[in-house]
Design a protein that fits this description.
- With about 190 residues, the chain is α/β, with parallel strands linked by helices.
- It has a single domain, classed as Class I glutamine amidotransferase (GATase) domain (Rossmann fold).
- It is built from seven helices and twelve strands.
- It is globular, with a radius of gyration of 15 Å.
- The model has no long low-confidence stretch (mean pLDDT about 95).
Length: about 190
């Protein structure tokens, strides 16, 4: 039986300090739906997962960011964690990679602290989004319309608040990724 996401390749953008469950659970859900999922990272070899503030497993990196071509991916997911987005958000190469998805309307998902990367890449103004409660203030300050809901979808951008919201997040990722490119997404990146 064919999966909803057969033929779709998803980039999971993460580095050391990623909230492990926010990477592994969506990755598994997307793969069960038929997608090929690649962990893309500025790190090489493997990155360090975390369970909140405690070290978790080492997670293999499939593609180093410097070798990643956005054209090879149909969608993007940015997991959160206390450390992961903070490391990613200061990297201009990360900004360029993320912006490339918005510029052509490819669907994007970000959970927990993950939207901080979108703030730093200047991609949230005018968007309706959610995030971890402390990040919601940052989203508002950057011009986003914030809802405190388990999952929010805005023109192909799927955002969610925390690990408890992962089932709803995964369901919406699959739905939006199956729809493909979103026409309004590209305008928001300009």
């Amino acid at each position: 039986m064919a999966g909803k996401l057969d033929g779709i390749t998803v980039a999971m953008l993460a580095t050391d300090g990623v909230e492990q469950v926010e990477l592994t659970d969506p990755k598994e859900a997307l793969e069960r739906a038929g997608a090929t999922v690649k962990v893309v990272s500025p790190a090489s070899g493997a990155l360090q997962g975390f369970n909140h503030m405690e070290k978790g497993d080492r997670i293999p990196v499939d593609v180093e960011l410097k070798k990643a071509n956005p054209d090879d991916f149909d969608a993007l997911v940015i997991p959160g964690g206390l450390y992961n987005p903070d490391h990613l958000r200061g990297d201009r190469e990360v900004h360029a990679f993320v912006r490339s998805f918005f510029e052509v309307g490819k669907p994007v998902g970000a959970i927990c602290h993950g939207p901080q990367v979108l703030i730093s890449a200047d991609l949230v103004k005018g968007r309706t989004m959610t995030a971890w409660s402390a990040v919601q203030v940052d989203l508002r300050n950057a011009g986003a319309h914030v809802r405190d809901e388990e999952v929010v979808v805005d023109r192909g951008l799927v955002t969610s608040r925390k690990p408890d919201d992962i089932p709803a997040f995964c369901a919406k990722l699959i739905e939006e990724f199956a729809e493909g490119r979103h026409r309004g997404q590209a305008r928001a990146a300009e």
